[in-house]
Amino acid sequence: MTRVIHTGDTHVGYQQYHSPVRRQDFLDAFGAVVDDAIDDDVDAVVHAGDLFHDRRPELPGLMGTITVLRRLADAGVPFLAVVGNHESTRGGQWLDLFERLGLATRLGGSPTVVGDTAFYGLDHVPVSRRDDLEYAFEPHDADYAALVAHGLFEPFAHADWDTETVLDESDVDFDAMLLGDNHTPDRAEVAGTWVTYPGSTERASASEREGRGYNLVTFDEAAVGGDDRVEIRRRALDTREFVFVSVDLRSGEGEARVRERIREHDLADAVVLVEITGEGDPVTPAAIEEFADAEGALVARVTDRRTVETEEEIDVSFADPEVAVRERIEGMGLSSTGLDVDDVVRSDSVADSNVRETVKTRVEERLDDPGAFVGTAGDEDGTGEDVETDDEGATDEGETAADDDGGDADADDEDAREGTDDDPGSDDEPTESSTPADGQVSMEDYL
Ligand SMILES: [Mn+2]
Bound how, and how many: what does the cofactor note say (predicted)? Predict the structure, then answer.
């Protein structure tokens, strides 16, 4: 008999809603799973990917993770894992670093035997490269076998990976597929093999309404009495309180009604997500969010789903883009030569074919005047980057509002894609940011 905890999608480092408290929550949830594993003396913790929220986790998340993994290793419980789409990097995987530190085993095509079960791994592979997969796994002589994989597998929602194909083409007969990627916990039997997701360990998006937890998986001839060889039980985790408030405003009702509905809940330290529908008066989301904050909420987000229809013409004025560019350039504190070059480049009176020559002439004219090349003002750090990078710039994979990156828009993008964290960029090659935010390190710094 082999008993393991099956978890995944811990998303350590995710600063959801820009809240440092939420960032800590994700690490704490991972710590809670590991503490349960130690208390329970399971044979292993199996992690099915997305240990980290992004490819360049910051040092606090890395150090916190190492502390948790060290605790597990000291208790003699192996940590077996694969790489998810959120954390996959080009140069090497964080998991390899943890393996080198003796804190983890990266599962792959050869068996890692714990007790009487052989574990194999299949990292996330983009759809475009799946046809090339051979599902070649080396043989084992254990009593049971499990495949740990990261992806959206059939028969669950949003699936793009055919489970039967994997099972048919694999050289090994698996008793179970222990999966990650879909944040909604579920299980099913496919061609005699149990297939299961434990779900995320903290709510990584507003669509993840049900309680969080993990799987306790037992490989045993006598599992659940009958001829089943695998027993999957779900255990709950005590995570951050989320309060979902839906308000359907009737005509004549407005902010007062929304506040009344919010007050029906205990908001203390909770993430409060308010959704407004109906016919009533317009409301100001910011005012309601302030109200919830004052009532003790950790974070409050209001989504008004009503389309505002009006008979009146709306008077919209667009700012002159030339003026906007000029203002921005003034703010950059360019030298007089820089300003002159900019003037030539954008001027209507210099033909495009003459720009190069004109710029050369203007710069040459000023070569005797060093002051003409000294900037006048501008950003303290001279980069201007703070204008365009948001404070969650750590996600370097081009995530948009469609992913659950905690922006204001993320409460209302879920309907078609509930419970998954399949971001639109997940099939692309990972894009390494050329300008990592402060405090970030990459795998290449270590390996
Ligand atoms: Mn995930």
Answer: Binds 2 manganese ions per subunit.
Instruction: Give the tens place of pLDDT for each residue, 219-264.
Output: 998 766 555 799 999 999 999 999 999 999 999 999 999 999 999 9
H-only helix segments in 75-198: 94-100, 163-169
Helix residue ranges per DSSP H, 181-306:
255-263, 285-294
Cα of 196 to ligand 1 centre, how many Å? 15
Q: How many whole angstroms separate alpha carbon 134 and alpha carbon 113? A: 22
Query: Was 85 annotated as part of a binding site?
Result: yes
Look at 262-271, 370-379, 390-399 and tell me which has the smallest mean pLDDT: 390-399
**Res. 89 pLDDT band, cuts 50 70 90:** confident
Q: What is the distance in A from the centroid of ligand 1 to the CA of 182?
A: 7
Residue 86 is among the residues annotated as catalytic for this protein: yes
Same domain, 64 and 176: yes
CA of 204 relative to ligand 1 center, distance in Å: 8
| Alpha helices, H only, 347-440 | 355-365
- CA of 207 relative to ligand 1 center, distance in Å: 13
Token representation of residue 194? 């149990």
Map residue 46 onto helix, strand or coil.
Answer: strand
Residue 183 marked ligand-binding: yes
Whether 159 is covered by a domain: the verdict is yes
Residues 6+ apart with CB under 8 A from 229: 144, 175, 219, 220, 221, 223
Which one of 6, 47, 86, 124 is the catalytic residue?
A: 86
50 is in an annotated binding site: yes
Range of the domain at 349: 334-373
Spatial strand order of the sheet with 271-278 comes to: 242-249, 271-278, 299-304
Residue 25: inside a domain, yes or no? yes
Distance 61 CA to ligand 1 centre (A): 16
How many domains, the chain? 3
Q: Is 6 annotated as a binding residue?
A: no
pLDDT tens per residue, range 3-21: 999 999 999 999 999 999 9
